Amino acid sequence: MPILLSRIGPQRKKLKGYTPIEVDEMFIIPTERLILRDFNKTDWRAVHVYASDPEVVRYMDWGPNTETETKDFIRRSIASQKEKPRKNYLLAIVLKAEDRLIGSCGLHVTNPNHQEGWVGYCLNRHFWRQGYATETVKALLGFGFRQLGLHRIFATCDPANVGSARVLEKASMQREGRLREHKWAKGGWRDSWLYAILEGEWKNG
Ligand SMILES: CC(C)(COP(=O)(O)OP(=O)(O)OC[C@H]1O[C@@H](n2cnc3c(N)ncnc32)[C@H](O)[C@@H]1OP(=O)(O)O)[C@@H](O)C(=O)NCCC(=O)NCCS
Predict the structure, then answer these.
(1) Does the pLDDT at position 59 exceed 80?
(2) CATH of the structural domain 28-204, one choice from 3.50.30.20, 3.40.50.620, 2.40.50.140, 3.40.630.30
(3) Ligand 1 touching residue 56 (CB < 6 A)
(4) CA 173–ligand 1 middle distance (angstroms)
(5) Atom in ligand 1 nearest the alpha carbon of residue 124
(6) Rounded CA gap, 129 and 54, in Å?
(7) Chain-centre distance of CA 36, in angstroms?
(8) 199 FRET partner, CA 20 to 30 A, in 28, 110, 113, 151?
């Protein structure tokens, strides 16, 4: 049975509400070609291949990682699997055909009371431009709206990150605006595009 959130104000009672779910030992979202799954301790090597690649982390506010930083990321991801209710789904992107870890993605419930979530993703560059990020984001949106009962899911990306903006548009997310000097990254302030999709738009999409 899903755990019901106890601190929803009276004005929200008529809404369906964010629905925390019970998570199995290993959380999995299957897609056509991918498995999005919880990280385990041995994943750090495959993650480190792209987390230490300057080209991959060019628009990220982290990296290139040292081995210690990648191991720490895996440690934090594993720790977040035990949250109750779980609000962070930091997941490995695994290519089904090869059982190979090719990236990471995440859905974070940013505000349960407002039924809002965030998505992010990052792939090993040998697997770019094959539709994997788009497939990942569509699966995360489905999970967020269908299973978690979210109302709005957003993402941000650097305006120069053309590929990422295209992924979000292909997942039917709308560009809502530009967040000025939103992030400190690689020694300077960076703007971000803000993209979002509402549950109703996702259902009608
Ligand atoms: C951005 C990123 C996730 C895209 O992943 P991907 O798996 O290559 O994306 P997809 O294959 O699903 O491509 C979706 C669309 O974007 C386009 N695209 C992807 N990368 C592109 C690029 N560098 N320049 C222009 N278009 C690009 C694809 O051609 C496709 O559009 P189309 O179907 O109209 O041809 C990947 O480049 C990456 O991991 N980058 C490093 C990490 C990062 O920047 N993450 C996002 C942080 S906001």
Answers:
(1) yes
(2) 3.40.630.30
(3) yes
(4) 15
(5) 39
(6) 18
(7) 10
(8) 28
